[in-house]
Automatic annotation (TrEMBL):
InterPro entries: Thiolase (IPR002155), Thiolase-like (IPR016039), Thiolase_AS (IPR020610), Thiolase_C (IPR020617), Thiolase_CS (IPR020613), Thiolase_N (IPR020616). Belongs to the thiolase-like superfamily. Thiolase family. The keyword Iron does not apply. One of its GO terms (molecular function) is acyltransferase activity. It holds the Pfam family Thiolase_C. The lineage of its organism: Archaea, Methanobacteriati, Methanobacteriota, Stenosarchaea group, Halobacteria. GO terms for biological process: isoprenoid biosynthetic process. Keywords: Acyltransferase, Isoprene biosynthesis, Transferase. Residues 5-252 form the Thiolase N-terminal domain. Gene3D superfamilies: 3.40.47.10. This is Thiolase family protein. It comes from Halosolutus amylolyticus. Residues 261-386 form the Thiolase C-terminal domain.
Amino acid sequence: MRDAVIVDAVRTPFGARDGAFAGVHPQDLAAEPLLALEERLGFDPQRTIEDVIYGCVSPIDEQGGNVGRLAPLVAGWGDDVPGVQLNRMCGSGQQAINFAAGAIATGAHDAIVAGGVEHMTRVPMGSDLGGVTETYFEHYDELVQQGESAERIAEQWGFDRRELDDLAVDSQRRWKAAWDDGRYESQIAPVRVGAEGETRVVDTDEHPRPESTVEDLGSLPLAFRQEGDGVIHAGNSSGIVDGASAVLVTSREAAEEHGWEPMARIVQTEVVGVDPVTMLTGPIPATDGVLEKTDVTIDDVDLFEVNEAFASVVAAWLDEMDAPREDLWERTNVNGGAIAHGHPLGATGSALLTKLVHELERTGGDVGLSTMCIGFGQGIATIVERI
């Protein structure tokens, strides 16, 4: 098996709902990371890129029709670059990279762009789901929304609102410290928006609220339950945003042929299924599973990205890992997470891996692990090693 390596990784800024990208078509937003990779690396897409794999969680309306194929067409990459859209819900962008890594490792391809897009303003979350068959209830007693699952996780692990709000505020503060320190500059591709003659450049995430305090969050109404009967609200949940991200995955040989210096090697991947009712516990067995497939231990991992879909998801993961909680949190989401910068569903997985490889390169760390919870009860994980 060959090594699959990440040559470069980039994302757009994440626009707030009804924010800077409200007037940008999802296909145009999806094309932006492709154009950024082309500019940064100087390749001829038609001679170099053998496939584009894009995650998208609501592939309907303006995001329908296979946005994985439409994005390279909109980017001007010509007829010869194929593309495919996939949907593993919140893990879609990460799954795109994992699939690309498998294709590279087996020798089926030499260079693939993998990533994702989600324009949650123009194509609302859940708009592609019309419901489930009654047969589902022959196997499961109930169908719950993810917010209720986050509440049940908080109950099961005994998290109170203050603990989760502390984590949320820390995420916001970490994002601000990283942004002010310029740590995102190498991974974000600015996007020009607006009509001709009235354009402006968007180069900053719009969702973060770094001034948030635990007292501020304490005044927010609950999002999924009645007051006094829950802990989850907008401030300790991921933000609804618009964004796209993409990673160039190649063989080590292809990178050498093009004169590229890879950022990281994709060491191992994992995907698991869990109870679709609590549904969001997937990062726990996914992390255990991907570590078991390698000789990497949790103590060997320098940096973790654990998607902050809800604060209770990350808190449960921290509790269940075989490492001291405080030490683990110091290595996790060090530049802030989705509670701060937002969670553009289909793009988040590739954006987290983008964060991970850039931060490993900046700090000189060796090993990183990214993991995500997924709707209807799944988990996904990827281990990378800096080159």
